[in-house]
């Protein structure tokens, strides 16, 4: 039997009421709280449809509490612990599909993966990995199934959660092996490169924080957990803001081949400002970036070909010319 796409007990109204009951079981909710939850997790008209029925008792799920201000009672759930919802066939089919992705398994230990495989053994996956053909992704992605890679990933995740200092032996792009102390802060995934990167702050010997560094996980040779944790978690967004170049890359984007939509999607991870250039059908885009990712941004821009024109700054434009000239020389050699 095919999995059902829609289900009455999994619709938006049901889930909004369930969230209200969950919160009302822990502490009293005012009518304003009920409206806030309905507005946040439902549709625009959800508060008008749901809250009056709960407050009036038409849906006998909440009871008035003596707490609260006069004329503004609090409501508590009559249901102490709503039972967890079972997964639908569609959800299990989707879960079976994504669990086949080796990146999915990086976030779980082996025992959890075995339990999941056992629970889904009779489920038909919604799709298979071979159903997808990636034409714009590099083929030298990370080795997600390697034991060393999975162990490094696990240690980094624990380090991020517990704000723990790690000693990382790293093989740089310039073929230098270094060992430094880092505070892991954030993992990010590049769909184009098919690689994970770690945003980490270097830690001095006195445990004070230095500069932000971006490390490719595939270049990590060894990780040692120092067992030391810091009480304060650094603001990575502030570090990134400080590391952003003063001059943004200035791009002129034509509207050929759906270029605007493709570039906006591709550069979604960057801070940017885009404006239309009159009636020319072209757009001006300013991309603000960190110096650490300058080379990657350069390659990404060049991948769009003639539909994107680099206008500046001069130092970035110089690198574009050098790359194009180098490609021309390689073509002549072929």
What this model shows, in words?
With 334 residues, the protein is of the alpha+beta class. The chain has 4 domains: 8-77, Arc Repressor Mutant, subunit A (Orthogonal Bundle), CATH 1.10.10; 89-131, no CATH class; 147-241, SH3 type barrels (Roll), CATH 2.30.30; 244-333, Alpha-Beta Plaits (2-Layer Sandwich). Helices cover 35% and strands 25% of the residues. The chain has 10 helices and 11 strands. It has helices at residues 12-26, 31-41, 46-56, 89-98, 110-119, 147-162, 236-243, 259-266, 294-302, 314-333, and strands at 62-69, 72-77, 164-171, 177-190, 195-203, 209-216, 220-229, 249-253, 271-276, 283-288, 308-312. The strands form 3 sheets. It has a 5-stranded antiparallel beta sheet with strand order 6-5-4-3-7. A hairpin with a 4-residue loop joins strand 4 (177-190) and strand 5. The termini are far apart. 16% of the residues are buried.
Question: Into how many domains do the coordinates divide?
Answer: 4
The whole-angstrom Rg is: 26 Å
Query: Mind describing the biggest β-sheet?
Result: 5 strands, antiparallel
Q: How do the SSEs run, as a string of H and E? A: HHHEEHHHEEEEEHEHEEHEH
Tally the helices: what do you get?
10
Flag low-confidence runs: none
Just name the CATH architecture of the largest domain: Roll
Helix content: 25-40%
N-end to C-end Cα span: 56 Å
CATH topology of the largest domain: SH3 type barrels
Instruction: Determine and state the CATH class of the largest domain.
Output: Mainly Beta
SS class: alpha+beta
Mean pLDDT: 86
Strand content: 25-35%
Shape: globular
Number of strands: 11
**Strand line-up in the sheet with most strands:** 6-5-4-3-7
């Amino acid at each position: 039997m095919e999995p059902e796409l829609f289900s009455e007990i999994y619709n938006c109204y049901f889930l909004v009421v369930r969230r209200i009951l969950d919160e009302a079981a822990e502490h009293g909710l005012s009518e304003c709280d009920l409206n806030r939850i309905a507005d946040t997790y439902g549709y625009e008209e959800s508060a008008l449809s749901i809250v009056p029925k709960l407050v009036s008792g038409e849906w006998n799920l909440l009871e008035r509490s003596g707490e609260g201000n006069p004329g503004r009672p609090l409501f508590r759930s009559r249901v102490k612990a709503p039972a967890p919802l079972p997964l639908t066939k569609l959800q299990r089919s989707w879960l079976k599909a994504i669990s086949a992705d080796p990146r999915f398994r990086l976030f779980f230990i082996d025992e959890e993966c075995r339990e999941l495989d056992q629970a889904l053994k009779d489920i038909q996956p919604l799709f298979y990995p071979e159903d997808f053909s990636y034409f714009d992704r590099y083929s030298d992605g990370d080795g997600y199934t390697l034991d060393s890679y999975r162990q490094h990933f696990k240690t980094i995740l624990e380090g991020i959660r517990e704000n723990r200092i790690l000693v990382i032996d790293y093989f740089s792009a310039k073929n230098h092996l270094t060992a430094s102390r880092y505070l892991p802060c954030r993992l990010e995934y590049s769909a184009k490169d098919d690689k994970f990167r770690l945003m980490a702050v270097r830690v001095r010997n006195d445990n004070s924080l230095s500069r932000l560094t971006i490390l490719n996980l595939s270049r990590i040779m060894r990780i040692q957990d120092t067992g030391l944790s810091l009480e304060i978690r650094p603001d990575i967004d502030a570090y990134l803001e400080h590391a952003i170049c003063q001059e943004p890359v200035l791009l002129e984007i034509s509207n050929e081949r759906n270029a605007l939509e493709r570039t906006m999607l591709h550069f979604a991870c960057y801070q940017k400002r885009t404006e239309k250039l009159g009636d020319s059908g072209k757009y001006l885009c300013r991309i603000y970036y960190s110096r650490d990712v300058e080379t990657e941004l350069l390659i990404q821009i060049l991948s769009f070909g003639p539909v994107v024109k680099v206008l500046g700054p001069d130092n970035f434009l110089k690198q574009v010319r050098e790359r194009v000239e180098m490609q021309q020389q390689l073509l002549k050699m072929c």
